[in-house]
Amino acid sequence: MLEKTFTIVAKTSFGLEDVAAEEIAQLGAQQIEKGIRSVSFKGDKALLYNANMWLRTVNKLLVPIHQFPIRDSEDLYNQIKKMEWENIFDVDQTFFIDAVVSSTIFNHSQFPALKAKDAIADRFREKFNRRPNVEKFNPNIKINLYINQKNSCVVSLDSSGDALFKRGYRESRSEAPIKEDLAAGMILLSGWDKKAPLLDLFCGSGTILIEAAMIAFNIAPNLKREEFGFFNWKDFDSQLFNKLKEEAIANRKFTNTRIIGVDNSGRVLGMCRANLKSIDLLDKVSLKISDFQDYTPSTEPGIIISNPPYGERIGDGIEALYTDFGDTLKQKFSGWSAWIISSNMEALKNVGLRPSKKLKLFNGSLECKFVQYEMYQGTKKIHKTENAVND
After folding, report:
1. Cα–Cα distance for residue pair 210/157, rounded to 1 Å
2. What's the rounded mean pLDDT across residues 357-376?
3. Helix pair 45-54, 238-250: axis angle to 10 deg
4. Exposed end of the chain (fewer CB within 10 Å): N or C?
5. Cα separation of 373 and 338, whole Å?
6. 196 and 84 in one domain?
7. To the nearest 10°, the Cα dihedral for 343, 346, 350, 352?
């Protein structure tokens, strides 16, 4: 079905394109091109399998299999029907079409998805006198349809299946957990060297801690996933995948890196422990029940990466929380570098420290700033770096 070398498109979140491209380069990909919320590259089956297993900041990996111009809906139907779908999956398997449309031909994405579904079903019916079933929530085969403003249609296979941020370790979740791919992206953007202590002062159910531990110990983020979309393709090479998975397991490197989580809720820390236990990292991360302003670090200076409340859920007092956070940094974290993400731009002003960096990211649909504060060793003042502040 696939050529020896083919194009792969990694879908990522806004602001994570650079770190996603760097991750992809480290896997040995060629012809890497960054877009907006996407990175395309060339690779083979082994790279596709490894990319699904190893990429931390990517939501899904698409493999384009056909591209053509269309004039109208019937043209779309005919072009899709010409494709040899029987070489990709069996009539006994289920499928689903996800359409993204910015075309002048269609007003919304549901109609072209329906036309494409009919074309595939009709091709199977004519060849086998049977048609595969459509399954929205857990299909064997996920097909991506993209029709751009120039009415060019790209048909891709979704090699990932479920979104890749669903690592398989989340046993419990707090009220406002950060997504796994965003947490990993924040850690990679921070420039953490995987050796200095890493502290989360608002650790919640532990997503930042777990992603940091997997980065530090070279653990493939999707090692625990039971299934990828490409498992259901006719040309799936199970022997190759199992070999790559065994290599990933063998390449884990456990070190003495200190990773510490602080939260003021024992119930939430219980969720964090359950998640750590599910991925066999409970003994690699230290947890402390405490208000952030009462916590005193017991390690040499390191890095803080946190996702504090934004104010949507806790009501009044959010400005005071950010003021206390800034005061705590000045009083207790001399020599540390602190990064926080927040959608509350007014509350961020209450930190009272000059940021050395500001990066725009999205936590779900919320536009956020990922802000760095550097503290001078021994002076409790802000380290005024030469880095430009990117608004």
Report:
1. 30
2. 94
3. 40
4. C
5. 5
6. no
7. 90
One domain, residues 24 and 62: yes
Same domain, 305 and 345: yes
206 lies in the same domain as 137: no
At 123, which CATH number? 3.30.2130.30
| Percent of the chain whose predicted confidence (pLDDT) is above 90 | 86
Task: Tell me if 374 sits within 8 A of 304, measured CB to CB.
Answer: no
Report the distance separating Cα 322 and Cα 345, nearest Å: 11
**Residues 191 and 324 placed together within one structural domain of the fold:** yes
Mean pLDDT confidence for 57-86? 96
Instruction: Tell whether 134 and 12 lie within a shared domain.
Output: yes
The pLDDT of residue 168: 84
Phi, psi of 311 (to 5 degrees): 110, -10
| Confidence check: pLDDT of 183 > 90 | yes
Residues 185-207 pLDDT 10s:
999 999 999 999 999 999 999 99
CB 278 within 8 A of CB 171: yes
pLDDT digits (tens, 9 = 90+) for 317-348: 899 999 999 999 999 999 999 999 999 999 99
C-alpha closest to that of 368 among 330, 350, 341, 328: 341
Identify the sign of the CA torsion 207, 212, 217, 218: positive
Domain assignment of residue 245, yes or no = no
Residue whose C-alpha is closest to residue 190's, from 389, 381, 373? 373
Cβ 261 vs Cβ 212: under 8 Å: no
> What's at 199, amino acid-wise?
L
Number of structural domains in the chain = 2
Torsion sign over Cα 307, 281, 302, 385? negative
Do 210 and 317 belong to one domain?
yes
Domain of 45, in residue numbers: 6-158
Phi, psi (deg, nearest 5) at residue 299: -120, 170
Alpha-carbon distance of 136 to 56, in angstroms, equals: 26
Inside any domain, residue 237: no
Q: Could you identify the residue written with the tokens 């964090």?
A: 272
Q: Are strands 198-200 and 303-306 parallel, antiparallel or unpaired?
A: parallel
User: Residue 176 — pLDDT band, cuts 50, 70, 90?
Assistant: low
pLDDT of residue 298: 87
**pLDDT tens readout for residues 246-290:** 999 999 999 999 999 999 999 999 999 999 999 999 999 999 999
Distance between CA atoms of residues 35 and 12, nearest Å: 10
